[in-house]
Amino acid sequence: MFSWSNKEGKKDPELFQNVSEGLKRLYRTKLFPLEDTYHFHDFHSPALEDADFDNKPMVLLVGQYSTGKTTFIRHLMEQDFPGMRIGPEPTTDSFIAVMHGEQEGVIPGNALVVDPKKPFRKLNAFGNAFLN
Prior knowledge:
single chain; mainly alpha
């Protein structure tokens, strides 16, 4: 009847331990060779790394000053975080990545972009002034 409905021609599905591992393997075996062939990384964006698949999803908050971005994060975390400043005038002129960890602390941007376990390596292209 239809060739796509024939169960004899089907291959066994690949099994993965988790979604992240499956996406990572599919990207490396199927999508990356296509991107490499057409030089996608030369004109659009760098290739994905393992850290892009292994880390938790991120949420970006953007808005005018004094609209409650820091207060919102503080409410979600139910505590203050290092580098937090709240005031009526513009108090933040940079970005802050708030991540889960065993210890509280601040990691400078220069150190963060060289860590292969974090998904921020591509920010290195913006230079030291941006990272500071």
